[in-house]
Each structure stands twice: as C-alpha cells, then as structure tokens.
Design the sequence.
C-alpha cells in the first residue's frame, strides 16, 4: 500500500514538474513578448512624437496621429493583458510549487513509513526464525532422547530374548533330565 502511494506521489510530482516546466516556458515566452511589445511601443511613441513635432500643421499627419494613438492604445491593452496573464501564470506557478513541495513531503513521509514497516517486518522475521531455531533445537533434542530410549529398549529386548532362549534351553534340559530320571526310575521299579 505504501509503495503504491509512493509511486502515485512520484507520478503526481512528475506531472506537476512537467506542468511547471511548461508554465515556466510560457511565462518566459510571455515575458519576451511583453518586452518586445514595450520596445515596439516606445519606438512607436518616439516616432509619433517626432512626427507630430515636425509636422504639426499637416492635416495628413493628424490622421496618422489619431490612427497611431488607436494603435498605441491597442498595444497598451495587449501589454496589460499580457501582464495580467503573466501574473496569473506566476500565481499558478507558485501554487504548483507548493503542491510539489507538499507531494515531496508526502513522498518522504511515505518512504519513512515504508522503511519503518520494512524494519518491523525484518524484526518479526528474525523473531520467527529465532522461534523456529528454538523449536528445531528442542525437537532434535527430543528425537535424540527418543532414539536413545529406543536403543536402550532394543538392547533390553535383545537381552530379554537371550535370557528367554537361555531359560527355554535350561527348561528343555531339565525336562529331558527329568524324563531320563523318570524313565530310569520306571525301569528300576519295573525290575
């Protein structure tokens, strides 16, 4: 979840930086255009003032002067529009800068949270591994104890089997000896 949020924040930062670059480019273009229009306006004002000063009596110049004034007003209006647009773009640029800063802080917070989660998981894994090692150790210890017990019981069983065979052999010998004695006794009594 944290990685998804971090990736989303990275994408938003990338998008906003791209928009910021575009706005900076537009801003630069508008500044150049405004400067060019101001230069043109100054040149035009200088040309108009020079023309009106030298040819004040000429009626043709009055017509040129009024059309020049109209053109001058249009240029001033364009400059005001461009300055307004420039101000709007600067405001938008500031907003996007703030948004980028917030997203970078969010990204940093998410990365720190992710790092904490990783450390927590590593601790939990280490604890589980330790528990598994303890369980493995105790299980092996129990298995060895059971093996030793089985070995002792096997030896005891072998020993009891030997004793049983020995007792059976002695029993057969005694039975045979007893039978011999019985036969001998029966023969003596018969004689």
Sequence:
């Amino acid at each position: 979840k944290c990685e998804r949020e971090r990736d989303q924040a990275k994408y938003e930062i990338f998008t906003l930086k791209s928009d910021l670059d575009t706005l900076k480019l537009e801003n630069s273009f508008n500044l150049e255009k405004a400067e060019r229009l101001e230069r043109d306006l100054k040149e035009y004002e200088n040309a108009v003032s020079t023309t009106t000063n030298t040819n004040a009596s000429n009626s043709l110049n009055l017509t040129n002067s009024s059309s020049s004034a109209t053109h001058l007003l249009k240029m001033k209006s364009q400059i005001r529009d461009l300055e307004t647009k420039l101000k709007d773009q600067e405001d938008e640029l500031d907003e996007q800068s703030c948004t980028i800063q917030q997203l970078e802080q969010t990204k940093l917070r998410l990365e720190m949270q992710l790092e904490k989660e990783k450390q927590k998981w590593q601790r939990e894994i280490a604890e589980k591994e330790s528990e598994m090692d303890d369980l493995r150790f105790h299980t092996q210890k129990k298995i060895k104890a059971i093996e030793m017990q089985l070995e002792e019981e096997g030896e005891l069983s072998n020993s009891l089997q030997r004793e049983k065979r020995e007792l059976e052999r002695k029993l057969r010998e005694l039975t045979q000896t007893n039978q011999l004695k019985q036969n001998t006794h029966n023969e003596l009594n018969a004689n």
User: Anything to note?
Assistant: The first helix runs from residue 2 to 54.
